[in-house]
C-alpha cells in the first residue's frame, strides 16, 4: 500500500519537475542526459526507502495520537510530509506556545487515519520552485534555504548551508534546557531523540557554558549534508540519499589524529557517566532506607503506574540502572532483591522527593546530559570539544557531591 502511495507522490514530483532541473548539487556536475537523471532518481528512491526517513508506520502511529497527549498535531511538522509542507508554507514559524489550533499561532492539521507519509522527496524538495543558480552550483530546490532562523528547540541557526533543512527537524524541539533557563528541574525530563542540531550548535547542557557552535559549523560547508550525504567535501556525485554517516569521512580532512579515538573516548565517557549516576542514585536511596524512609511508585513496561507508593524502612538497594523511556528518566532498581521500575522524580528518600533535594537536582541534570549525548547518536562527531567538556564537568560535579547527605532545596 505504501509503495503505491509513494509512486503516486513520485509521479507528482515528476509532473512538476523536469528531471534535469534536479541535476544539481555542486559546480563540477555536468548536465546529464534525461535517462541518467531517471536512473539517479531511482537510485535515490532506493536509498531513501531503506533509510529511517521512510518510516510511515511511525508517522501514522504519531498521527493517530497513540503517543502524545494532549496534542499530537505539533508532532506532525517533523514526522509527516504533509505537516512539514504545511509548516514550510507558513515559513517554519515557531508555534511552541500554541497548544491548540485556536491558540493563535500555526498548528498543522491532523490527518485521516493511515494517510500520514514520513519525510518523502517532496518534503525536502519543492517541485514547484524555480531553479536558481547560486554560487554553490545548481540548487536542489530545498524547501528551506539557509538563513538565520529560530528552531523549535529555542535557539537560532545561522549560516549552515544545506544542513538547515536537516536542523529544522533534527532538534530537541522543546525550548532551551540549561543552567540559566532551568535552575531547578521540575520533572525528570529527557530530551527528544532528535537533538543533533542542539549538539552541533552547542545548546542544552547543564554544568557548561552553552551557545558555542562546533568548529565544524564554519569548517564544513553545508554542515549536515556534507557528512551525511557525502556531497560537498568530496564533490562526490551522485549524493547519498541513505543519509548515513560513518567515521570514515573524517579521514578526508583529518590526518593529525585517529577519528576513532573520538568515538572511543565518548563511549568511555558515556559508560563512566552512567555508572557514576547509578552509584549516586544508589547512595541517595540507601541513605533513605538506612534512616527508615524510602519509597517509590512502581510501574510496568507499558507504563502503567501503581497508584500507591511502595515504602521501605530497611534493606538494601542494588542494581540501579538509569534508563531512557521516551523523554523521561526512569530507573530499574532492586530493593531487597526484588525488581522495580520507577520514574526518577517519584522516588523519595528520608521524606524528600528526589527533585526537591540539592543532590537529586544534580542527579537529574547529570542524567539529562547523559541522554543528550547518548540520543544524539554521533559519539562526539557532531561536537567533540563540547561533548568532552560536558563529560568532564558532569563527572566532576558528581564526584564532588556527597549523595549520602540529603539537603532539601532552599524553599
Ligand atoms: C530529508 C530530506 C531529503 C529527502 C527526503 C530527499 N532529499 Fe534529495 N536532497 C536533499 C538534500 C539536502 C540535497 C542536497 C545535497 C547536497 O548536495 O548537499 C538533495 C539533493 C537531491 C538532488 C540533486 C542532485 C544531487 O545529487 O545533488 C536530487 C535529484 C534529489 N535530491 C532527489 C531526491 C529524490 C528523488 C528523493 C526521494 C526519493 C529525495 N531527493 C529525497 C534532501 C532530501
Ligand atoms: C522538531 C521536530 C520534531 C518534533 C516536533 C517531534 N519529533 Fe519525534 N523525532 C524527530 C526526529 C528528527 C526524530 C529522529 C531522530 C533520530 O533518530 O536521531 C524523532 C524521533 C521520534 C521517535 C523515535 C525515537 C524514540 O524516541 O523512540 C518517536 C517515538 C517520536 N519522535 C515521537 C514524537 C512525538 C510523539 C512527537 C510529538 C509530541 C514528536 N516526536 C515531535 C523530530 C521531531
Ligand atoms: C521532515 C523532518 C525531517 C527532515 C527535514 C530530516 N529528517 Fe532525518 N529523520 C526524521 C525522522 C522523523 C527520523 C526518524 C524516523 C524513525 O525513527 O523511524 C529521521 C531519521 C534520520 C536518521 C536516522 C537516525 C537513526 O536513529 O537511525 C538520520 C541519519 C537522519 N534522519 C539524517 C537527516 C539528514 C542528514 C537530514 C537533512 C538532509 C534530515 N535527516 C532531514 C525527520 C527529518
Ligand atoms: C563531521 C561530520 C558530521 C556532520 C557535520 C554531521 N554528522 Fe551526524 N553523524 C556523523 C557521524 C560520524 C555519526 C555516527 C555514525 C555512527 O557511527 O553510527 C553521526 C550520527 C548522526 C545521527 C544518528 C544516526 C544513528 O544511526 O543513530 C543523526 C540523526 C545525525 N548524525 C544527524 C545529523 C544532523 C542533523 C547534522 C547537522 C546538524 C549532522 N548529523 C552533522 C557525522 C556528522
Ligand atoms: C570537510 C572537512 C572536515 C571533515 C569531513 C571533518 N572535519 Fe573535523 N575539523 C575540520 C576543520 C577545518 C576543523 C578546525 C581545525 C582547527 O581549527 O584547528 C576541525 C576540527 C575538528 C576537531 C577539533 C575541534 C573539536 O571539536 O574538538 C575534532 C576533534 C574534529 N574536527 C573531529 C572530526 C571528526 C571525528 C570527523 C568525522 C566524523 C571530522 N572531524 C570530519 C574539518 C573537517
Key features of this structure:
alpha+beta, 4-stranded antiparallel beta sheet
Structural account:
By secondary structure, the protein is α+β, with helices and mostly antiparallel strands. It has a domain at 259-399. Helices cover 35% and strands 9% of the residues. It has helices spanning 2-16, 34-50, 56-63, 76-79, 81-89, 121-124, 164-167, 196-201, 215-219, 224-228, 259-290, 358-376, 384-399; strands spanning 133-134, 137-138, 149-150, 156-157, 294-296, 310-312, 317-324, 329-335, 338-343, 348-349, 352-353. The strands form 4 sheets. A 4-stranded antiparallel sheet has the order 6-5-10-11. It has a 3-stranded antiparallel sheet with strand order 7-8-9. A two-stranded antiparallel ribbon has the order 1-2. Helix 11 (259-290) runs antiparallel to helix 12 and helix 12 (358-376) packs antiparallel against helix 13 (384-399). The longest helix is centred in the last third of the chain and has 32 residues, at 259-290. The radius of gyration is 24 Å and the shape is globular. One heme C binds at residues 52-53, 55, 58, 78-79, 84, 119, 123-124, 165-166, 169-170, 224-225, 228, 243-244, 377.
User: How do the SSEs run, as a string of H and E?
Assistant: HHHHHHEEEEHHHHHEEEEEEEHH
Q: Give the helix tally.
A: 13
Uncertain regions spanning at least 5 consecutive residues = 1-30, 96-101, 131-136
The percent range for strand residues is 5-15%
Radius of gyration: 24 Å
Biggest sheet, strands in spatial order? Answer: 6-5-10-11
Given helix and strand content, the structural type is alpha+beta
Which ligands does the model contain, each kind named once? heme C
**Topology, number of strands:** 11
Which bin fits the share of residues in helices?
A: 25-40%
Amino acid at each position: 500500500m505504501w509503495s503505491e502511495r509513494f509512486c503516486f507522490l513520485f509521479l507528482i514530483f515528476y509532473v512538476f519537475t523536469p528531471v534535469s532541473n534536479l541535476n544539481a548539487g555542486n559546480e563540477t556536475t555536468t548536465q546529464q542526459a534525461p535517462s541518467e537523471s531517471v536512473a539517479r532518481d531511482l537510485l535515490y528512491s532506493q536509498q531513501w526507502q531503506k533509510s529511517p526517513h521512510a518510516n510511515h508506520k511511525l508517522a501514522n502511529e504519531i498521527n493517530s495520537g497513540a503517543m502524545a497527549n494532549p496534542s499530537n498535531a505539533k508532532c506532525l511538522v517533523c514526522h509527516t510530509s504533509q505537516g512539514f509542507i504545511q509548516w514550510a508554507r507558513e515559513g517554519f514559524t515557531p508555534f511552541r506556545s500554541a497548544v491548540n489550533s485556536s491558540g493563535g499561532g500555526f498548528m498543522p492539521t491532523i490527518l485521516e487515519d493511515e494517510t500520514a507519509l514520513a519525510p518523502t522527496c517532496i518534503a525536502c524538495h519543492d517541485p514547484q520552485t524555480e531553479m536558481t543558480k547560486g554560487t554553490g552550483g545548481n540548487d536542489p530546490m530545498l524547501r528551506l534555504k539557509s538563513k538565520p532562523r529560530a528552531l523549535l528547540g529555542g535557539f537560532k541557526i545561522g549560516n549552515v548551508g544545506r544542513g538547515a533543512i536537516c536542523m529544522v527537524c533534527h532538534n530537541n524541539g522543546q525550548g532551551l534546557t540549561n543552567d540559566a533557563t532551568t535552575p531547578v528541574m521540575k520533572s525528570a525530563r529527557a530530551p527528544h531523540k532528535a537533538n543533533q542540531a542542539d549538539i552541533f550548535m552547542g545548546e542544552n547542557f547543564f554544568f557548561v557554558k552553552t551557545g558555542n557552535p562546533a568548529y565544524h559549523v564554519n569548517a564544513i560547508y553545508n554542515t549536515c549534508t556534507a557528512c551525511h550525504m557525502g556531497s560537498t567535501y568530496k564533490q562526490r556525485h551522485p549524493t547519498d540519499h541513505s543519509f548515513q554517516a560513518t567515521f570514515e569521512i573524517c579521514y578526508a580532512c583529518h590526518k593529525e589524529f585517529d577519528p576513532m579515538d573520538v568515538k572511543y573516548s565518548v563511549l568511555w565517557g558515556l559508560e563512566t557517566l552512567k555508572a557514576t549516576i547509578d552509584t549516586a542514585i544508589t547512595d541517595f536511596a540507601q541513605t533513605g532506607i538506612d534512616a527508615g524512609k524510602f519509597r517509590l511508585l512502581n510501574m510496568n513496561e507499558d507504563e502503567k503506574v501503581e497508584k500507591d507508593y511502595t515504602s521501605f524502612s530497611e534493606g538494601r538497594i542494588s542494581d540501579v540502572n538509569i534508563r531512557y523511556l521516551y523523554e523521561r528518566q526512569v530507573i530499574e532498581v532492586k530493593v531487597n532483591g526484588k525488581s522495580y521500575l520507577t520514574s526518577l522524580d517519584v522516588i523519595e528518600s528520608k521524606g524528600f522527593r528526589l527533585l526537591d533535594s540539592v543532590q537529586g537536582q544534580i542527579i537529574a541534570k547529570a542524567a539529562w546530559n547523559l541522554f543528550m549525548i547518548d540520543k544524539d547518536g554521533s559519539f562526539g562527531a557532531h561536537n567533540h570539544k563540547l561533548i568532552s567538556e560536558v563529560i568532564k564537568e558532569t563527572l566532576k560535579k558528581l564526584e564532588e557531591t556527597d549523595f549520602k547527605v540529603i539537603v532539601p532545596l532552599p524553599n
